[in-house]
Request: fold
Amino acid sequence: MLVDSHTHIDTSRFNADREHVIQAAVAGGVTRMVDPGCDLASSLAAIALAQAHPGVVFAAVGVHPHDATTYTNEVGLHFRKLALDPVVVAIGEFGLDYFRMLSPREVQREVFCAHLELARACDLPCIIHVRDSHDDVIELLRAYGQGLRGVFHCFSGDVAQAEECLACQGFMISFAGPLTRQGNALPEVARMAPLDRILVETDSPYLVPQPLRAKRNEPLFVKHVAEKLAEIRGMALEEIAHVTTANAIRLFGLGEQKNETV
Reply:
């Protein structure tokens, strides 16, 4: 049993076979998946998908840093109302992305802080996007995120950065497809991270794990990330599945852990 803690199956790349993708994931042992919004429209789509698949798909509401200029006070108020729905288990994804810079830096920072306030008001965990922006994310969390909880999704940094992230009490780090690839520090991070602070995800339809040659990632493929994590940690896949599922259930409030096998 696994949880895909971050997947965008509400997007148009799944329009032709979304139901099949969800059914295939569940049949393959991925019994829960969290679908975060990237703007208001996708947040609404994620909620509709979660409502159609109770206990399997869960939603988060937020604005991705690429779309930070679309965030307004009215959008924030709308998110507060949407977050009352029990299918909404987190605020996100939001964060800072200085790689593509599709929104101005200061706007990204302002919207980041607005989401922290929203998470606090709703008493929900944060799903944080970090790309080429680690120092600023940590700075803002230290200043405005005290007492919050959440996950640094698709973690891509080094050990020192992971240590700073894990120093934020209540926050976890999540591994995705890049863990299966060469040329990064993620194996070292995976070895040092406490077992009770790690999650696995696909970030589908992006970041297909190796050795797959698929053109589109999907929740079923989170098993390949878990297998790599188990290999790095010297553990059985079943152990990693149990640990990461328990962590996801605890962070997002996904209900009781079931006894399915991977």
Q: What stands out?
A: The chain has a mean pLDDT of 96. The radius of gyration is 17 Å. Residues 2-252 form a domain with the TIM Barrel fold (CATH 3.20.20.140). The chain has one domain: 2-252.
